[in-house]
Amino acid sequence: MSYDFKKNSDQLTLAIHSTDNSFGFAYRENKNKLTDNFFVKKFEKDLCNNLIVDFTKFIKKKNFQKINKISVSIGPANFNASRQIVVLARTLSQQINCSLDSFSSFELMAKRIAIKNSIYSHKKKFWIFKKLKRRGYIAGQYEIFISEKTKKIINIKEKLIPKIFEELKDKECSFQAEYNEMEELKELLNLSDINSQNHNFNSWIKVLPLYPISPIN
User: Within a 13 Å sphere around the CA of 210, how many CA atoms are in the beta-carbon half?
Assistant: First the structure.
């Protein structure tokens, strides 16, 4: 059965996310935050099958027909989970011909970390890092933009996607990655809403998992 998603007045954004030890889904109807719905689950042995089963239980047929945009995290996180959620997101985006937004896991936590650590200088740059067991760090760089009127953070731009460094470049302005499934699912939806306002359509073809090292490391 096929559906005409573009003519459906009830539009839904779907978010798909994974961390080091969990995966989750969320959706938002018509860009209304009051409609947000969430599902988070810790990894089990058979992640591949559980991911599909839990997704179909979560989204339901009536909501599946409303999807007109998908937002997915691409890592760095658990390598196997990142790969599988990206495959799921790409497949759905291709099948229903909708835009697929993608964001690094560090970008999703950047605003929360900046607020927690009171980083409020306009266009100030900072790093988010994850210590590796065998070799250095995975780190990404982020830039803060502050509202001149409210003096609050309005946007954070990813200046450098997470990659491997032997040493942290700026230890005084570096903060450890802190995953939070619910908050990051919300941010996936928020960032996707911003893309919609800017009329950005992103193809599933360009979306790939982000993991700077091989699974064995």
Answer: 24
Radius of gyration of the chain (CA): 17
d(CA 140, CA 105): 10
* Domain 6-104+181-206 superfamily per CATH: ATPase, nucleotide binding domain (3.30.420.40)
> Per residue of the chain (217 residues), what is the pLDDT tens digit?
333 444 446 899 999 999 999 999 999 999 999 999 999 999 887 787 789 999 999 998 889 999 999 999 999 999 899 999 999 999 999 999 999 999 999 999 999 999 999 887 777 899 999 998 877 999 999 999 988 887 788 889 999 999 999 998 788 899 999 999 999 999 999 999 998 887 778 899 999 999 776 554 4
- Could you give the residue range(s) of every CATH 3.30.420.40 domain in the chain? 6-104+181-206
Distances 173 to 77, 154, 155 between C-alpha atoms, Å: 22, 20, 18
Rounded Cα distance between 197 and 204, Å, is 19
Tokens describing residue 83: 């790969």
